[in-house]
Amino acid sequence: MSDTSDQTVVETPHGAGKSDMIVLEGVEKIYPGSTQPAVSQLDLAIPQGDIVMLIGPSGCGKTTTLKMINRLIEPTSGRILLDGKDVTHVNGDQLRREIGYVIQQGGLFPHFSIADNIGVVPKMLGWDKQRIRERADELLHLVGLEPSVFRDRYPRQLSGGQQQRIGVARALAADPPVMLMDEPFGAIDPITRDRLQDEFLEIQRTVGKTIAFVTHDLQEAVKLGDKIAVFATGRLEQYDDPDTILTRPANEFVSDFVGGGAAVRRLSLVELAHLELHPIETDERAVGGHNGTAVAEVDGSGKPVSWRHLPGGDAAGMPLVTVPISGSVYDAVDVMLDGCASIVAVVDEEGRAQGVLHWNDLLGGLRTRERHS
Amino acid sequence: MSAPAAPVVGPTDVEPEEEEKTQSTFARLWFQHYDLVILPAIIVLVLGFLLIYVSTRELDTIEQRVLAPANVFGLLRQHLLLAALSTILVLIIAVPVGILLSRRAARRVQGPVLAIGGFAQALPPFGVLLLMAFAFDFGVTTAVIGLTLAALLPVLRNTVIGLQQVDQSLIEAARGMGMSSRQTLFRVELPLAVPVIVAGLRVALVLNVGTATLASYIGAGGLGELVQQALRLNRINVLLVAGGIIAAVALLIDWLAGVAERVVVARSG
């Protein structure tokens, strides 16, 4: 660690040459009246455009760390760099206006209309009314809520999921390069949460923010994170991409935390949508010459009904089982065991085949898809 | 109330629906607020009975002079002025003090200050008014100060409580988005505390309208004067009317404040 304020460009396992947007250097927080630091000597670099999930048991310092980035909590020592600029001692209010912030249940102001809620930061930044209005409409579109319907509503008239969408839209309002999210989907039912996570990834693909995201849900961390930072009482135990965290935990704490040893439990953490699947053909003409590709018969609506050709042969004896792509590898294994099949077709919401998963893939190691292509 | 949707499509279809809609908003308002009609009805009834009773009586010249509209309305005006002035003073003093007390730096003095407020309220207003009159001066100013002291607590306490009950996560969201603590106070905390503060103000106002009756004893006028005149002159009819009017005014003010409170609550969501 150097004391000079030079531009920090650290090589990352992800895309080479990607500069670090958020850098914490030797950051420490000791709350008054406490001898034990809540966060001790933390070094953490978040590459630009990445989602980094801060995870750990409660009281591990993950939320403290998040709030030190926008200085809602002042660090006791160490420094914080944002896009290479030392922000440890700049005006906190000004700093926070340039960082998006999303909290649990959205934290929407009940006495502000939806448009006013979204416009909070732009208004503080002195945008004119017309521009704030247009921005609110634009963001409502982005989060999938019709502006003419929702613009003038009040938060209490919205469902929890809708409120959370507005919470994200509000954080994006002034187009900050960095967003901090504090368990935003924590208090939402599992089905809605899953959909919000998908939408969130979709939005992130278009906006490409640098995001620090606190969660206590390992599944969420694996699903959303480009990297995961596992915390134990004030210390960073491991900082790696999700696969490495799951397959090669750095120490006993991390392996305990991810459910150490119980390989089967990991299956439920890996979503089929994030896997590199084998291709599947459903075209009538694609019978010959595709030795390496599975071919399925489809019914009138495009749903696969039986195998015509399998790479390993014996298409006739193999029952065709399907699993929705929204499920996890655990679901796929369940379906395979249940149907006595060594291969499963992964289908989308309409029931159309998207790819296949072999039993052997489980043994040979699952390959996840590169998300930033 | 969507009866079998008529398949006939035409411009005439729209109108009855629209009409039904306005009717239903009216019905909705009525269902939410029909209880507001009860109190004015009682007031009108009581005052009506009083009027009928008085008109059946032979009033002597003294009674006629005391009950002359000019006298009654003049005293009523004084009375309302006393109550209004003291309530405004309460608002000006108690709300800012309440805000200060709810700031983090002042949390420690909150308890003692609220205790002093409770002490002030526990003192009998009549005694306070008399003592203050002897200590300072007889008249309106002293009366207003006395009334103000006696009504500080409800507003002070409600301001503190109203600010305390603002969801902590909203304050955090406000700060997290870069609002200064001042902006957070004026744009988030206070607006959300308004319903509770207004409820306290209503209590203070009603308290003041009632207590203002005692102001006449230190020469500050008001409807208490009517009671005193009736007692001095030993005129039961006047006493009856005075009592009726005082009660009616107190109820009416409470009712008005209640309506105002509902409007505020409805507007602040």
Top keywords for this entry?
heterodimer, A: 373 residues, alpha/beta, Rossmann fold, CBS-domain, 2 domains, 6-stranded mixed sheet, 4-stranded antiparallel sheet, 16 strands, 31% helix, 23% strand, globular, disordered N terminus, B: 269 residues, mainly alpha, MetI-like fold, 11 helices, flat
Written account of the structure:
The complex is a heterodimer of chains A (373) and B (269). In chain A, strand 7 (178-182), helix 8 and strand 8 form a beta-alpha-beta unit. Chain A has two domains: 20-266, P-loop containing nucleotide triphosphate hydrolases (Rossmann fold); 273-364, CBS-domain, CATH 3.10.580.10. Chain A is α/β, with parallel strands linked by helices and 373 residues long. In chain A, helix 5 (129-142) packs across helix 7. The two termini of chain A are 32 Å apart. Chain A has 14 helices and 16 strands. In chain A, 31% of the residues lie in helices and 23% in strands. Chain B is mainly alpha-helical and 269 residues long. Chain B has a single domain (40-267), classed as MetI-like fold (Orthogonal Bundle). Chain B has eleven helices and no strands. In chain B, helix 5 packs across helix 7 (140-164).
What structural class do helix, strand and pairing data of chain B support? mainly alpha
How far is the first residue's CA from the last residue's CA of chain A?
A: 32 Å
Tell me roughly what share of residues is in helical segments of chain A.
25-40%
Taken from the alpha-carbon principal axes, the silhouette of chain A is globular
Structural class of chain A: alpha/beta
Q: What's the SSE pattern of chain B?
A: HHHHHHHHHHH
Strand order of the largest sheet of chain A: 6-7-8-3-9-10
Radius of gyration of CA atoms of chain B, rounded to a whole number: 25 Å
Note the overall shape of chain B: flat
Low-confidence stretches of chain A at least 5 residues in length (pLDDT < 50)? 1-16
> What is the C-level CATH assignment of the largest domain in chain A?
Alpha Beta
Strand content of chain B: under 5%
